[in-house]
Predict the 3D structure of the following.
Amino acid sequence: MTDLSLVIRPERPEDAPAIERLHARAFGPGRFARTAYRLREGAAERIDLGITASVGSFLVGSVRMGPVRTGATSFVMLGPLAVDPSFAGRGIGGTLTRAAIEGAQQAGEGLVILVGDAPYYARFGFTPVPPGRLSLPGPVDPARLLWLELADGFSAGASGLVEARGASL
């Protein structure tokens, strides 16, 4: 992990401005053109599943989950996961990812998807979505579309175009 005095806690509504500044530092303005960001547009994130990391009063990391669906099958999409560039490589992203997965499982979610680096996310149990099972509303390298089944057999009902859905909480 890290020797920082890191505080991991659930996201709170008042964290939104600091999280947006963190996203700007971590991803820059090009983030808005990415398919994963476009999917999240207009959809409320599941703030009950958001996790933050702080050192003192400085927010250094955040992970969010957004409600998505294919047809009648609802699940969550992990992301964005952001760590301040000056704190990269200290295990913060992994800590946030594990906390987010645990929170989704405790909330009764059956499946988590994400767009990301397969070797990085494999250590958390994510695997590539089988070809032709899910599609996003925009270009995505199929090798970067990953999922993690939290409830046995849940992924059998997930196929088709992934769409944002309104937050349940």
Summary: DSSP finds four helices and ten strands in the chain.
